[in-house]
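Hi team, as promised in this morning's meeting, here are the two structures we talked about. I've kept the exact order from the run log so nobody has to guess. The first one is mostly here for context; it's the second one we should focus on when we meet again. Sequence first, then the predicted structure tokens.
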Amino acid sequence: MLQQGDEAPEFELQDADGHTWRLTDLKGRKVILYFYPADDTPGCTTESCDFRDASPDLSRAGYVVFGISPQGAASHRRFADRYGLNFPLLIDEDVSTARAYGAYKELGNYKTIPIRIKRSTFVIDEEGRIEHAEYGVKAQGHVDALRERLSV
């Protein structure tokens, strides 16, 4: 499990539009990565919509937000469009990034969707170090608590 001060693991992931995002390209920016189990499930929808609603304030404070889950581009696009999500959803189909961040865990299935992600959030500073790591996040109220922690 990652802790404050650890170097954030590098990642290279695509979003639903095929844009490739790399942590190294985000140096100099504050990053929030949140790992969520699956698109369009109740808890993930709550959390994603909360990040959507907080996005303007987080952006003004200098943060860029990314959601990460194993679903593919079509699923991410439907989810983002359905709920008006205003930040990239990154595709981690092989869960290698989730594993690197310690957010991987076989949790069973939700309906027919295999759940392999432990809901987790990471705040990464401008130098690429973990500022805050939280595992086993509860969807309800998480974003408000994070905003309070970050004074946003």
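And here is the second protein, the one for discussion:
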Amino acid sequence: METINDQDHYRALEAAYASGPINDFYRPKLQVGEGTAEISMEVDSRMFHAAHSVHGSVYFKMLDDAAWFAAASKVKDVFILTSQFHIHLLRPVTQGLIVAKGKLLHQSLRMFVAEAVLYDQRQREIARGSGSFMRSAVRLSEKVGYRFPERG
């Protein structure tokens, strides 16, 4: 079996993320590194709840995705799954760029623990979360959008 270069793995994870149909709506940008991930996205009024600020589901998506990719950066063979995730919503946001920064905290053979912090455009913390993630039986492949960058 061929060893996968870390940078190729990170780019393939980014490609898999971009291929997810849900991201056609959110249009986030992802950067994966060793045990880290950063996701940025522009706030859109279609993400608002009735009180005209971003719905908590958007906070959850950003935090879970950033923590998930921080953990996934260490798994080169299978898709991982969120097994639990806890969030703290700290302040509302109504406009601008939001950025989630994820970091792997712990890993074992089957379980990973990661956290993420979500910031508004003024770099104020607006939410934070942490979760655990586990290996699945789904192989990383083009079937899940995991594809290596073109080589020139």
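Starting points for discussion:
The chain has one domain: 6-141.
The chain has a mean pLDDT of 94.
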